[in-house]
């Protein structure tokens, strides 16, 4: 962010996580406030009151709330503290709401409490309007982007290929947290179908999470344990992607996933489920192939179509890389985000000065 306009500070429920060192390395202050185990417990009420006092004391002018419960209670704390501009961020579709109090509170907060809801896809904006009744005028779509300079299309790392047991194989990969919404079980089912057609394909699963043990067991049940490599969390994702021939996104719900942009920037053809904002990123038949969520057979058919036609796959990869570099660099998103905050501050009669990002570090 432009430090001549904004002084960013992170206000986090927990000052932990893999992003914390990166944030601190940027010279951005991180302040932690905890909450009690129960939403309406005396401890939680005390902690939220303390958070409001902090916002008043620091004279925060923009509170930007992101992630989970922070988007439910952060805006209320911001208003209690007298923060001039309060915004929520919705980075994906709200698959975690299944009715009940949380959904009602979120809808109320987005309709009545915040000045705007920042989204990264048209699909997320449409859901806010249709499901939660948020006025379209409150939705700010800043798009999606990532640090694309990391994906420079360099030659594959043969040492890494050997380390992962991928020598001499075609590689179909997936990158993401091993959680149910990411649909890895369907990826494994598609892997079993691809393996019946070709015995030279290996399947690389990058990431970790609560589903890992279950997925490893499922790979065995499907008879593909020897073909699937669970690589865990990797810091060198660009190098790992450099070993892939096809990148798959099997999610059941998404907003506008960065991993798709990273795969495109790496020059990979994409096979992805038609969910959320994914069709806004992947041009079906041009930069990749789209299938319905949960359709393992369709996923396998798409992957085989690309593996069996290297020329088509290469053309899609090149088109995807050109699109990513032209349209989805993170600098464009930052400019749009700053512009949205600046306009809101002008409407509030305040000059831009401090932006506090509320969420988990």
Helix-strand sequence: EHEHEHEHEHEHEHEHEHEHEHEHHHE
**How much β-strand is present in the residues?**
15-25%
Task: Please give the order of strands in the largest beta sheet.
Answer: 2-1-13-3-4-5-6
* Overall morphology: elongated
CATH superfamily of the largest domain: Glycogen Phosphorylase B
Structural class determined from secondary elements: alpha/beta
Note the main sheet.
Answer: 7 strands, parallel
Q: What count of domains describes the coordinates? A: 2
Distinct helical segment count: 14
Number of strands: 13
The end-to-end distance, rounded to whole angstroms, is 17 Å
Q: What is the gyration radius calculated from CA atoms?
A: 22 Å
Q: What is the averaged pLDDT score?
A: 90
CATH topological fold name of the largest domain? Rossmann fold
CATH architecture heading of the largest domain: 3-Layer(aba) Sandwich
- Which percent range fits the helix content? 40-55%
Class of the largest domain in CATH?
Alpha Beta
Stretches where pLDDT falls below 50 for ≥5 residues?
A: none
Explain how this protein is built:
- The chain starts with 6 loop residues before the first strand and ends with a strand.
- Helix 2 packs across helix 3 and helix 3 crosses helix 4.
- It contains 14 helices and 13 strands.
- The chain has helices at 20-25, 42-57, 70-80, 100-113, 122-132, 158-163, 184-197, 212-221, 237-241, 258-265, 278-281, 296-307, 310-327, 330-347; strands spanning 7-12, 29-32, 62-66, 85-90, 116-119, 139-141, 170-175, 201-206, 228-232, 246-249, 270-273, 288-291, 354-359.
- The chain folds into two domains: 7-145 and 330-359, Rossmann fold (3-Layer(aba) Sandwich), CATH 3.40.50; 151-327, 3-Layer(aba) Sandwich (Rossmann fold).
- It has 361 residues and is of the alpha/beta class.
- Strand 5 (116-119), helix 5 and strand 6 form a beta-alpha-beta unit.
- Strands 2-1-13-3-4-5-6 form a seven-stranded parallel beta sheet, with helices on both faces. It has a six-stranded parallel beta sheet with strand order 9-8-7-10-11-12, with helices on both faces.
């Amino acid at each position: 962010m432009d430090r001549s306009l904004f002084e960013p500070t992170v206000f986090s429920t927990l000052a932990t996580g893999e992003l914390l060192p990166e944030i601190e390395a940027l010279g951005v202050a991180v302040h932690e406030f905890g909450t009690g185990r129960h939403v309406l417990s005396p401890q939680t009420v005390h902690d939220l009151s303390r958070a409001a006092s902090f916002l008043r004391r620091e004279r925060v002018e923009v509170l930007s709330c992101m992630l989970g419960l922070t988007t439910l209670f952060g805006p209320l704390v911001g208003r209690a503290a007298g923060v001039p501009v309060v915004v929520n961020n919705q980075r994906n579709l709200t698959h975690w709401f299944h009715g009940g109090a949380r959904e009602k509170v979120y809808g109320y907060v987005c309709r009545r409490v915040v000045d705007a809801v920042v989204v990264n896809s048209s699909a997320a904006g449409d859901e806010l309007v249709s499901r939660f009744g948020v006025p379209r005028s409150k939705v700010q779509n800043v798009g999606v982007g990532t640090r694309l300079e990391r994906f420079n299309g360099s030659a594959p790392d043969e040492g890494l290929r050997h380390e992962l047991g991928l020598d001499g194989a075609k590689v179909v990969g997936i990158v993401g947290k091993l959680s149910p919404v990411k649909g890895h079980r369907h990826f494994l089912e598609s892997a079993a179908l691809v393996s019946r057609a070709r015995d030279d394909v290996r399947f690389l699963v990058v990431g970790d999470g609560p589903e890992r043990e279950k997925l490893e067991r499922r790979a065995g049940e499907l008879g593909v344990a020897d073909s699937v490599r669970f690589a865990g969390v990797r810091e060198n994702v660009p190098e790992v992607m450099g070993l892939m021939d096809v990148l798959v996104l099997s999610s059941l719900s998404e907003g506008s996933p960065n991993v798709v942009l990273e795969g495109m920037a790496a020059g990979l053809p994409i096979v992805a489920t038609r969910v959320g904002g994914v069709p806004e990123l992947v041009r079906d038949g041009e930069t990749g192939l789209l299938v319905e969520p949960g359709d393992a057979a369709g996923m396998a058919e798409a992957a085989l179509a690309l593996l069996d036609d290297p020329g088509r796959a290469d053309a899609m990869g090149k088109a995807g890389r050109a699109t990513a570099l032209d349209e989805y660099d993170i600098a464009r998103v930052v400019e749009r985000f700053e512009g949205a905050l600046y306009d809101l501050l002008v409407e509030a009669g305040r000059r831009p000065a401090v932006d506090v990002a509320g969420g988990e570090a």
